[in-house]
Amino acid sequence: MRGRCLLHGAPITGLPVHEVAARGLARTFQNIRLFAEMTALENVMVGLHRQGTAGVLGAVLRTAGARREQADFTRRAADLLERVGVSGHAGRRAGTLPYGLQRRVEIARALATAPRVLALDEPAAGMNAAETDALRVLIAALRSDGLTVLLIEHDMRLVMGLCDRLAVLDRGRLIAEGPPATVRGDPAVIEAYLGHAPVAGAAC
Predict the structure, then answer these.
(1) pLDDT tens for residues 139-161?
(2) Which of the residues 46, 125, 141, 155 has an alpha carbon 20 to 30 A from that of 135?
(3) How far is CA 169 from CA 113, 138, 176, 188, in A?
């Protein structure tokens, strides 16, 4: 499959990950990619490193500026964990957290980069019904805060309940695009549902 990706009208295809993040796009992954032996708080702090100014030397020498920056990052990471509902687990190793909470920590780490667009790749994969419902509430709250969410998801109940606009792919081909009510009744989407679940990309 070939194509290109634009972010706010500017091409980002092929750019290094740190440059994409600097332009305002953060993402999570279908397979959770947390640092399992680090705490939830430390994982979120990783997302803040791009905003640091103290540098490696300052961190090694423990300069006053580096200590202030570390304290600020700790506070901000704690605030983000509270935002996603995981503040009570900040000191636990990420790998020991239940699956649904690990997803939330990953979202908090993505939010730490201060994105304008948050791309969530199959965030409900492997979740039970209660976890998926809690995820829906969280994503809706993030959207209410003004964040643009790009949701790539097979769970059509989640997608239909959250998103303003859908794009449905079948075997890599765009078969429908538009508001949920329109896409739901599209013959091509109905046909695809009968064979296998399509992948939907949705702007929330």
Answers:
(1) 999 999 999 999 999 888 898 88
(2) 46
(3) 29, 25, 7, 10
Residue 197 carries which DSSP code?
P
Residues 58-90 pLDDT 10s? 555 577 766 788 888 999 999 999 999 999 999
Report DSSP letters for 43-92, one per residue.
HHHHTTGGG--SHHHHHHHT-HHHHHHHHHHHHHHHHHHHHTT-GGGTTS
Which tokens belong to 50?
């791009």
CA nearest neighbour of 150 among 204, 103, 190: 204
pTM of the model: 0.84
Residues 6+ apart with CB under 8 A from 16: none
